Amino acid sequence: MSHPAALDRALPFDVLCAVFVHAQWPSLALVSRAFHAVSRSLAVRARFCLAEFGRRRVLDGGVGLPARRPRMATPATVLVLLGLGADPRAGDQWVLRHACAQGWVPVVAKVVAMRATATTTTALPASPAAGPDAEPLDRWRGGAQAEVLAPRPHESAPLVDVHAGDDEALRIAASLGRAAVVRVLAAAGADVNAADGDPLALAAGGAHADALAALLALGADARAGRSRALRAAVLAGDAAAECVRALLAAGADARAMDDSCLLAACYHGDGALPEPDRDLGLDLGRDRDQEPGPAPTRAQLLALAFGGVAPTAGPGPGPGPGPGPGPGPGPQPAGVLRYRGGRPATSHLRVARLLLEHGADPGARGGRPLAYAAAKGWTRTAAALLAFGADPRAAAAPLAEAAEHGHVRVVRLLLRAGAAVDAGAGAALLGAARGGHVTAVRALLAAGAAVEGRAGVVALRAAARGGWPDAVAALAAAGADSRDAEFRAAALRSHRMRAALGLEPPP
To answer: From start to end residue, where is composition biased (Basic and acidic residues) (predicted)?
Structure first.
């Protein structure tokens, strides 16, 4: 038998299809290995699939080759099928969308290059009368002045529409980071700013820096949709830090949507990063509480925020005195947490710094970025915001947020930075007492929180109602009025509370 590669070209089409069918029998494969090898030829399989499903359905994802014989739906098979005349428009252009998702660049390039061929008849101009030496046709045309119609094939519009579904193919490729496919589609006319900048936002949200760089190079607008791509990249965390950097360099507005990008970064904050291993003289982790020391310098705050992690590629221009020296966050702890989609969780500290360096307002919405970081206990993020000028006395009450949630390191940091301990009628002390966070209560008392007046009584009542004897004892020892009738009524219901205060039950 001839070589299999020669057989699939020499045998008729019907014979090749029969070879493919019969060669699936194991017993027949044992009779002739060459016969079986012919059946495994790519050309033979493609021709059989074309005969089985038809030219218009073979590439339909619902009823064609992908659905009935998915193991044969490979890039090489699809390319052969397209060369044999398979219709790429089947199944709402399934082959284009699937090739974009899988990153099959040759398939995408072939599909977008395919053109519909049509045949028209063109009138040939009549020639003048020919001499005796002219060709017979010329003599006849010249003598009769007849008009001859000649068929002429020509290419019309592309077979597939790259703009279908609001440039769905491009959006699929961008969302999966297929940078080479993005370039092919853009060269075929796909709109890189389709759906109000959706391709760019999808690439940014997936932290696909190569695809995002390709879109920007092809003219994608970084400010489309109020810089929605920047927000998508920020929400992806430090894994998308290069995307954030590229978008900011391309003109994205760091303050878009009322500084929602910075708010999101500060809410997620330190993430999986460990607490700073050094206090740098700030005494944030001390055992005994004492009066806060002098305000930390900007260098101390930057070192506290970014110490212990790898440096960034380099800071950009910052507000006020500038970003200054100091390391920035780099590689994140692997496998500590995972987001819902399965992607490893990261911090948002690096993207927060990039936003601050490019003009985001650390005091936006009444100081809410710092309040978010304080409420979540993000020591590094709070230090970074303070280094870039956030006000610890802002209306959003970051000290009260940190105290209410028991984040004593952030409480001490804010007190050192100048937060007013009695702001909001003692809201910080009340929050710490209500939650039973005795370390935060003691830190606030050491900083001079007022307990002699109504603020102390209200804090006592809250601690008693919550059943926190240690917090009650700390407040009473600091001078809070334990004779208040409402407090005593709440305290005397608990044996532990009576024991802590040395109170005897009423007769």
So the answer is: 276-291
